[in-house]
Amino acid sequence: MGQFYRVAILGATGAVGTELLELLESRHFPLADLKLLASARSAGTTLKFRGEKLTVEAVNAQSFDGVDIVLASAGGSISKAWAKTAIAAGAVMIDNSSAFRMDSKVPLIVPEVNPQEAANHQGLIANPNCTTILMSVAVYPLHRVQPIKRIVASTYQSASGAGARAMEEVKTQSQAILNGQTPKPEIFPYPLAFNLFPHNSPLNEQGYCEEEMKMVNETRKILGASDLRITATCVRVPVLRAHSESINLEFESPFDVAKAREILSKAPGVKLVDDWQANYFPMPIDASGKDDILVGRIRQDISNPNGLELWLCGDQIRKGAALNAIQIAELLVEKNLLKPQIAAIV
């Protein structure tokens, strides 16, 4: 006897929404029913799933009736508008926006790191920021063995982090430049093709942007280390898909490089790409469309005997967003942390 679940994707037509759809199919999630929800503007659109065409519906007050799990990826304001309605209808919302991440009552989960937090949900679970997820998966296996004192992170974030339209904008701008024309930015404040610039999220009074502070605050919450020292610099780069990060870790005492490499070679969600002889290390082109975080260039920090350096690449849309949400849903099912409405023989 197996359990089947009714699932709704809120924001089904976006870059993450369509990836959620693909993952539900490819990972054979036990579905009784799938509902695709979006704004009234997108209502009537059809999307393929398991060889059939499903019609996108405009979200309304009755959309969540009978739904077990809501995978929300339509932005913070939409999540805030519908979270109470979904929870009141008996669903668990897994939210990909930043709306609830730092709420003390809402678990912030990376399944490879803190799956035990799923048991504490009150109908709402937050999916962390993409850069935080990628870094957490890579550094947690080391943190478990020897607690990290300080993290210095520099990110190289692809256009996919700003959505499907941003990815198309980079393509259009690239073509314009190659044709000798002036590129026109619409999604980004500046041309991203053949360019890069600091992440354009709002700055705080200390000069840190919102994206950088997400890495700081969310990593502390996920690792359960409120006093962990973290600093970050987030940069947007002209890559279509998959983010890259340069990570410097400081420990209380030296962390053997060979030991770190061995730990990461066995870590869940990590693929070691560390071929010194061939000078071959993680690249976003190799990480695109992949589930694992590619980690390499593991070396001792020559300026600090207690420091380790590593480089990682991970698909922002996949593990950085959609896959992590699906893994949380799978965790809820596996641990029986929501009440299914349909029982069926597999």
TrEMBL record:
It catalyses: L-aspartate 4-semialdehyde + phosphate + NADP(+) = 4-phospho-L-aspartate + NADPH + H(+). SMART domains: Semialdhyde_dh. Substrate binds at Q157, E210, R236. Pathway: Amino-acid biosynthesis; L-methionine biosynthesis via de novo pathway; L-homoserine from L-aspartate: step 2/3; Amino-acid biosynthesis; L-threonine biosynthesis; L-threonine from L-aspartate: step 2/5; Amino-acid biosynthesis; L-lysine biosynthesis via DAP pathway; (S)-tetrahydrodipicolinate from L-aspartate: step 2/4. One of its GO terms (molecular function) is NADP binding. Its EC number is 1.2.1.11. NADP(+) binds at T13, G14, A15, V16, R41, S42, S160, G161, Q316. Keywords: Amino-acid biosynthesis, Diaminopimelate biosynthesis, Lysine biosynthesis, Methionine biosynthesis, NADP, Oxidoreductase, Threonine biosynthesis. Residues 6-121 form the Semialdehyde dehydrogenase NAD-binding domain. It comes from the Bacteria. One of its GO terms (biological process) is threonine biosynthetic process. Phosphate binds at R101. InterPro entries: Asp_semialdehyde_DH, Asp_semialdehyde_DH_beta, NAD(P)-bd_dom_sf, Semialdehyde_DH_NAD-bd, Semialdhyde_DH_dimer_dom. Catalyzes the NADPH-dependent formation of L-aspartate-semialdehyde (L-ASA) by the reductive dephosphorylation of L-aspartyl-4-phosphate. Homodimer. Belongs to the aspartate-semialdehyde dehydrogenase family. HAMAP family: ASADH. This is Aspartate-semialdehyde dehydrogenase. It comes from Phormidesmis priestleyi ULC007. The lineage of its organism: Bacteria, Bacillati, Cyanobacteriota, Cyanophyceae, Leptolyngbyales. The gene is asd.
